[in-house]
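Anyone able to model this chain together with flavin-adenine dinucleotide?
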Amino acid sequence: MREQPALERIRNNEEVPFGYSPEEAILEANRCLMCKKPKCVDGCPVEIDIPGFIHFIAEGKFREGVNRLKEKNILPAVCGRVCPQEEQCEQKCIVGIKNEPVGIGRLERFLADWEAEQGEAEFPKKTKATGKKIVIVGAGPAGITAAADLVKMGHRVDMFEALHEPGGVLVYGIPEFRLPKSIVFREIKYLQDLGVRLYTDHVIGMIKSIDELLDDYDAVFPGTGAGLPWFLNVPGENLNGVYSANEYLTRANLMKAYLFPRYKTPIVRGKRVATVGGGNVAMDCARTALRLGAEQSIIIYRRSMEEMPARNEEIHHAEEEGVIFKLLSNPAAFHGDKNNWLKEAECIQMELGEPDDSGRRRPVPIPDANFRVPIDVAVIAIGNSPNPLIPSTTPDIETGRWGNIVTDPETGKTSKEGVFAGGDVATGAATVILAMGAGKVAARGIHDYVMNQK
Ligand SMILES: Cc1cc2nc3c(=O)[nH]c(=O)nc-3n(C[C@H](O)[C@H](O)[C@H](O)COP(=O)(O)OP(=O)(O)OC[C@H]3O[C@@H](n4cnc5c(N)ncnc54)[C@H](O)[C@@H]3O)c2cc1C
Ligand code: SF4
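re: yes, here you go
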């Protein structure tokens, strides 16, 4: 797919790849073998009829393709951009055995963008109202998907979101250059046009508890995500200039610090920014730092490139843009000046030992090999736990080891009557499509539950 040249794109926040033209999409769609038993569908957590929508593209019937896609996926423009297709549908694609797999994600994105260019979206036929009322807590991918499926089943669906914008990580975390926010808002408008009532600035657990919601609704779905950042717990982590990835990205994206001075959101625009971690979130932070004007953006990661959990595409884009990778390194402390402004990261040099529980080789510190890196901003991107507010204000809901809400994987049911959950709040930080899959499962679970209530 054609994309903005690296040196140009780090000076703006525009999306990196341009997307397929109709001719390119038809060419790519014609590579699909339209398998009778399509392996790609087995790899899709929301069971999209992949050969079905690709067939329509190959025939130039884009409207039919969009409708087929949207039967199962309420966020095609998002998934086409951020899903790890290389580990899911495309990994299973039969063409991929000998050649490049069919570009399923890119074709999905093409259809969603084509529909947006046409103006008005088409809507499925309205189902008869059931008279049941469901409330969704959290407007991230899990909540959005559950809401869409439930409203299509004929239920009244209200959605409460804590932030002033809906979208969850899609708006506060994933940067504009990877997922333009106008695309997320377009897909949320579609959800509202389906009939879902959205209320922003509503923090459940503060203004109302889950028990109070159950007085007014037949079922509740908390899809409140994993937004509680982990820290390294090393000396100096409280210095000015040290951020959690969540805070850094929220300031940059949701609060639009990249549009300073039009938006007056404060953010420290360091000249030398170090991001600690090796996942997608770390890549997003390092690339955001460049766009905020950093002269050097450094990834500090404790294992080697081979163990790095970020998508290959994200690592490749970061490398192209000039992000420096300091591998087999881990901060032991941060040092500041007399006014408590960050000046240096003191790092431990590591080597790889035996594999750990995750199967990746464990990083082992090399004695007496600490070194210092001069920096003025550090971003800690080493993971998140589920948001604790709902579990802590709902005492009779069962939680797991990481503070996650325990659910039945077949139905999304929790230990509490009438409460179903899914997405990152149940699994811990995962992916958009897994959160959407969990939203779908819970929607079916909720439907069965409310329709069989006495
Ligand atoms: C920077 C970043 C980059 C990522 N990149 C990718 C990627 O490229 N591909 C991918 O597949 N995944 C990616 N992920 C992971 C993915 O975004 C998440 O797995 C997914 O968004 C989880 O969806 P969710 O609906 O469970 O939670 P969230 O998206 O976190 O949404 C939860 C929502 O609930 C709201 N909420 C929380 N508490 C309350 C409350 N008490 N009351 C009301 N509302 C509340 C939150 O404000 C939020 O809007 C990334 C994550 C991050 C942080
Ligand atoms: S497995 Fe590949 S070739 Fe077969 S239907 Fe799916 S996308 Fe097409």
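The two ends are 54 Å apart (CA to CA).
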